[in-house]
Specification:
CATH class: Alpha Beta
Shape: globular
Structural class: alpha/beta
Helix content: 40-55%
CATH architecture: Alpha-Beta Barrel
Order of helices and strands: EHEHEHEHHEHHEHHEHEH
Length: 251
């Protein structure tokens, strides 16, 4: 039985004061049994989050990772070995903002995925299509290619130790949300692509939906058979809203 997961991507938000306030709110939440919760602060605030959430049922991950797992001469980057040493357990790989704005290619993301797993971190692989690609009915082709590049390079077995997040680019931070059925259709296609390689891996893989998830739409989204939780953006910066989404996952 797959455990539901609710993960909060704080993106490039937070000061020491606002993060302290958010941690206080998160620490007061009751996490339902059967739900895993994680937050992804900026690099600056990872240590503060790990220290502040000690003893809470909330994991801490990083939003990015270097292409090499070990420390070295790579100015401005953070190695997966450093993240593991700090207490991180997960890392985002391939978020659309990094694919589109930073220009990260599938080849770079494959190296980051492998570097994360080399140090025992769980990569959360983000996949998704732009509005133009959806309108051109290329959604499954685009998502399938993004996922397939990792399968081809690293093998299907790596997804026994990974999470996949489907985030339609057109629904991130726009207020637009895929309908539960639209999201389910893509999640089902992702699981079918995994199953074509290994049925057991496919059955166990956790598939999250991201893209303007709020308390108001979480119950219906999470009720879909192939949606195992959410990767939450803006709503994760508000402890009350994030808590409501976590409760929805528990239902």
């Amino acid at each position: 039985m797959r455990r539901t997961m609710v993960a909060g991507n704080w993106k490039m938000h937070g000061t020491r004061a606002s993060v302290a306030e958010l941690i206080t709110g998160l620490s007061a939440l009751t996490v339902p049994s059967g739900v895993d919760v994680a937050v992804f602060p900026s690099f600056l605030h990872i240590g503060q989050a790990i220290d502040g959430l000690k003893g809470q049922a909330i994991a801490v991950g990083a939003q990015n990772v270097a292409v090499q797992p070990e420390q070295g001469a790579l100015t401005g980057e953070v190695a997966s070995s450093q993240l593991a040493d700090a207490g991180c357990t997960l890392v985002l790989v391939g978020h659309s903002e990094r694919r589109q704005l930073i220009g990260e290619s599938d080849e770079v993301l494959i190296r980051k995925f492998a570097a994360a797993q080399a140090q025992g971190l769980t990569p959360v692989l983000c996949v998704g299509e732009t509005l133009e690609q959806r309108q051109a009915e290329q959604t499954l082709e685009v998502v399938g290619r993004q996922l397939g590049s990792v399968i081809e390079a690293l093998g299907i077995e790596v997804f026994a130790r990974a999470v996949i997040a489907y985030e339609p680019v057109w629904a991130i931070g726009t207020g637009l949300t895929a309908t539960p059925q639209q999201a389910q259709d893509v999640h089902a296609a992702i699981r079918a692509q995994l199953a074509a390689e290994n049925a057991e891996v496919a059955q166990g893989a956790r598939l999250l939906y991201g893209g303007s998830v709020k308390a108001a739409n979480a119950v219906e989204l999470f009720g879909m058979p192939d949606i195992d939780g959410g990767l939450i953006g803006g709503a994760s910066l508000n402890a009350d809203e994030f808590g409501a989404i976590i409760r929805a996952a528990g239902n």
